[in-house]
Amino acid sequence: MSAFPERLVLLGHPLGHSLSPVFQNAALKAADIPLTYELVDVPRSALPDAIGSLRRSRAAGNVTIPHKEAILAACDRLSATAKAVGAVNTFWIAVDGALVGDNTDVGGFRAALAKLLGAPRPNEVVALFGAGGAAAAVLHAMEGWQNPRVHVYSRTQRRAEDLMRRFRVPGEVSRSAEDAVEGATLVVNATPVGLRDDTVPVSAHALPKSCAVLDLAYRPGETALVRDARARGHAAMDGLTMLVEQGALAFEQWFGVAPDRDVMWKAVTQRR
3-class SS at 216? Predict the structure, then answer.
């Protein structure tokens, strides 16, 4: 169990796009918890000092790009999910002073997929873009599916190969984005591509006719990948559901109570 945090933060770099303070502060207000969720923009070089400061201030919070794997190494204890994924997106200081890391991205991804498809389908073929913490969360979730297969594509092929070796999901590393989507029933973008502009990890013209698209990136007006895919008749959704749900699961870890998800959604949709 965590001690009541004295500070609540999101660690990452850069952070100007984040909607996390919007829904987390709405949830805190609704729960009558006297804290403010704040952004802490920390470049890689300053992360060790930032972690020390957070320990001293008994902080809790979330972690986003590019620090999810580095925070894992700094934790004194890890949840089973964080160990399996190899990345931390949620942390807190325990009663005994230990820095504890968890990963609620897995639960957030499951919630997003449920909203898009209802449930993962048997024999799902996933084109997965990325080889970082978010991609690892997707692969960990896929380990419980019925006969899945994955095509992983990353700009760094070695990282994709290393990622594939860590999870019990059959598949292969693709040499191009177009190769990855061939035969796919579900396309998942787990990279930052499209987060800040209208670039896409793969052209919608390359998508198989009946595949669904889940872009874990989000931005005002949705990402270009989601807009383009939907315009061509694909079921498509961005990462907002995953964002809010992973945040709600983190809130439960910090305070031992579930937040008001309706309040969180109302706050974030008003600001989108």
Answer: coil
